[in-house]
Amino acid sequence: MEIPSEPRICPHCACTVPVGAPEGLCPRCVLAGASTSTDAGTTAGGPSRQPPTLAEVAAAFPELEVLSLLGSGGMGFVYHARDRASSRDVALKLLPGKLAADPAFVERFNREARTLARLDHPGIVRVFHHGQSGGFCHLTMEYVDGANLRQVMRAGRFTPAQALQIIPGICDALQYAHAHGVLHRDIKPENILLDSHGRVRIADFGIAKLLDEPADAQPDITLTRTGHRLGTPHYMAPEQVERPDLVDHRADIYSLGVVFYELLTGELPLGRFPAPSTKAYLDARVDEIVFRALAKERELRQQSAGQVKDEVEGLRQPPEPPTPAGPGMALATASCFASTPEHLRTILAQFYIYSDGGTVSLEAERLVFAGREGTTVIPLSDILGIGLGEYPRLTKPTGLSYIALRHREGAAERILLLTPYTSMWNATWTTNTLVQEWHRKITEQIARIRGHVPPVIDPALLRVAGPWRFFAIVAGVAATSALLLPRVLPWLRPTPLEFLLILVGFAGFALAVAAITARGPRRNVKWPSSALGGIVAFGLALCLTAGLAVASMVRRAASGAHPFPSPNPIAVDPITSQPLVIFGPIDATTDSGAVVAASPSRSESGALVRTVALGDGSVHTVSEAEFLTRLLGAPATQRPAVAEFLMGPKIPGGLAEDRLRNGAAITRSSSSAGEFHELSLPLPEAFLQLAHGDPSLTMFILHALLRMLPEDPDREFLFWIPSPGNPPRRDLHLRTQSRNGGLLALLAILAARAQPPQPAILAWSQDEGRKLWTNQSRLTLCERRLDGESDQTWEEIFVDTSEVLALRPGQQPQFIVIRHTKNFGVPPQTNVVAFPWPRTP
Amino acid sequence: MTDSPPARPIFAPTRWSLVLRAKGNSPEARAALSELCGAYCDPVLRSLRSRGLDEEHARDLCQEFFAHVLRGSHLEGADPRRGRFRSYLLGALRHFLSDLRERDARLKRGGGIATESLERVPEPATESDDARFDRDWALALMARSLAQLAEEYGRDGRAEWFAQLKPCLEGSGPAERQSEIAARLGLSEGALKVAIHRLRRRFRETLLHEIRQTLPEDGDATEELTYLIEVLARG
């Protein structure tokens, strides 16, 4: 036992090594080192299964003397054994037991193993035998007396020089295997062995593939699951994860890159990983080799393992002084946005400040910006000025910086603004730090070449107009919308669906434009090109849908049909010029002429005329003959429309009995023939007089009813219309199968109009959201309000009869127009209800 | 594919478990106990010295203590499933010393005893004395494992390797040192890394084996190791 004369400071934990410590070693570090197993990694990757005991294995392989279990994991179990015949040490690998029961697997295993057995390279662990024995698929391999890279890394981190010594050996072995058409697919430190002479030996070639392929016969066998777990995700190339069936040898190169990175830094290249040179003291050219091997697109990687080896061995050549890179060798590379002062002065720049995006590399004597729009090469000797600036705060409120480079291009002078970045999602200040760093790098490189620092660009050259144009655009759009929408919308009257489609169409248009003109940031978004086309097509499809919606609106607007059911302003009160809201039984939204009301009167010459309000808001006075011809005598195809007009299609379910308090009763009844509505109405004397005094009204009703009859033979009408020739009857009885609330209500109204003053309801009507009834003194409007999800309440609004307006003051009224102001809702809404006004006898 | 660790069944009877099972009465157990005592007399000796005894007295008392222990009188009550040799030895030492003090006091009351016997009686144990004992124990354990390793390497004719590689047990150290060692041993750096890995693994195995010898049959050696590392870190 050595006892040092004076206490030593342990270089690892910086504590004083106690006097009398065994061998003068720091006991803390030595024991702590021993407390962690160096064998970690050999058992990773699979569900912990009980390995077969040595005796079991020995029984299955009598030709071998099984010495010990070396390791176990998802790949199976590895035993150290000695071949009795040749006294040669071998490693016996048993694949997971269940697999041997699957004939498809065994067949594939034999095929693969034959291929593996042909690999004969000093860097590859040889496979001697393969087969099935004792219920196991097994491989007998060369026994490597050494340790794997994982274990060795635990024993001490690699210096860059040591890492660079190891890599070419791995490359050689990979190159050999790739040339023989064998991919490893699971390159990781656990599979890279160092023998006792420190030589690289790669084990487990192709095993990952063997275990990863799903067994056709038994898709649910643990093999598949195990296989997916086997691949060590951190070492797998992106395409190996996404499209395992399409991997080629470049996936091994990616894995090699990960191992390389880990050897250099002791860490895995996860997420946005730093360059190895920031973690270890090494040549910056190593960064480039590692980054290339780790490229997400395999096309950007080294295309063969041999190439990696060449590049690594190329590092042994000392870098060229004074600049550490020859022409074409980048000193630094970064993703980069580009812009120009000219672009920043355009209106487009108010929304998107960049004119291009790509990669910038600083080389010994030039700066190369490779963008979508083309590559700009600026010889450093041509740079007239350099400066730092900020993009307009309007689009980049946090103040994103750029490097401005004024340079000669031919005879002209140009200014290029560059913003290198590591990730689009970085905070501005992170990117700004990078921008400043690049500014320093470029300045230093120019100074190195030209011997002096380049002049700073005159800020006047970089000045951009203020944000007034942006605000002008926004204000212009807002004003135009404010002016146009109220005019266009009532005319177009879009339905909610159409409105939505138009909005979606705008979004689709924006999407398509963005996809077509994508630049800059999109370079780093890994969209397959087909997806880009798909996005454009999708956007255009949305535009098309919106276009169809607009077309349908325009067509409808031009034809005068309106899409909304009542109540909607569809006519104008001629007296007050206010929109008439007409609903109820006399609001008939028809396909043909949209007649909403027709009332007979006598013109000044004494001829019978009709005042007809149409759905487009116009009011016409037509002769009786024309009215009958155009409406009642319309071609058969239009008759249902006329009938609909009379029937008031907007009354679902017809009338409810309880609302008719004037003695009339409307009941709903069902029979085998269907559902019927019946109106039983005591005809008052006044009505009889009304009918006597107005034969055209009587005719009107008669016409309408009669024209319905032949179309629906099931309908049964029993009516007595008083006429001079008929003995007057005191009641009217109608029975109809249709939901002809309109017709019945019309009759009810007519009856009510003729009624002498009485407290009962004179008129009554209902649509989906409203009920209206009236007597001589009071008009009651009842509106449905939705409370919450499903509750409905009806709110009564009492309308004073002074609010009853008459058309054409001083003359015989033709409509009764009632206006009421809703006392709820913001803003207060004025509704007007119109009824035909019966003539007084 | 690494070289094989020596096949050592985990639940083979350890020396301490042999002692416990036989309550120290079988010849086998006596041999095991005497071997254990031989291995760990250093912590006892240091403990006695730290209680204010000079080298010579400490050695005498240590001899006496081990003679006392090897008589096996304390083992009667020991639970064969629990208790580790370290705790046993520390407890036995405490008893031994308190007995000693009592005897001493009795003699004093009896009168006519020289004052030198007072000097011979160590101070009572304190908390920090126990911690020191455990620390010394860890050092003894480490020394024993290292010695065994050195012997193994020497047997294979690689004593020089062990001498050069042992600093690597502390940690990997600066890269230059590794290159230096590699050059001195005539190895490539890769081969050196493999050699270091092996040394560390072998050391771990030896250490755990040694710890196991002081534990009852189902004792957890890694737990004991963790405890000893903690003790060292506190000190």
What is the gist of this entry?
The complex is a heterodimer of chains A (841) and B (235). Chain A is α+β, with helices and mostly antiparallel strands and 841 residues long. Chain A contains 23 helices and 33 strands.
Report on this model:
The complex is a heterodimer of chains A (841) and B (235). With 841 residues, chain A is α+β, with helices and mostly antiparallel strands. In chain A, the strands form 9 sheets. Chain A has a 7-stranded antiparallel β-sheet. The C terminus of chain A is likely disordered. Chain B is mainly α. Chain B is elongated and about 70 Å long. The relative contact order of chain B is 0.13. At the A-B interface, helix 1, strand 3, strand 8, helix 4 and helix 5 of A face helix 7, helix 9, helix 10 and helix 11 of B.
Structural Rg of chain B: 21 Å
Count the domains of chain A: 4
- The dominant shape of chain A is extended
Form type of chain B: elongated
The proportion of residues in beta strands of chain B is under 5%
Q: How far apart, in Å, are the first and last alpha carbons of chain B?
A: 40 Å
The helix/strand order of chain B is HHHHHHHHHHH
Biggest sheet features of chain A = 7 strands, antiparallel
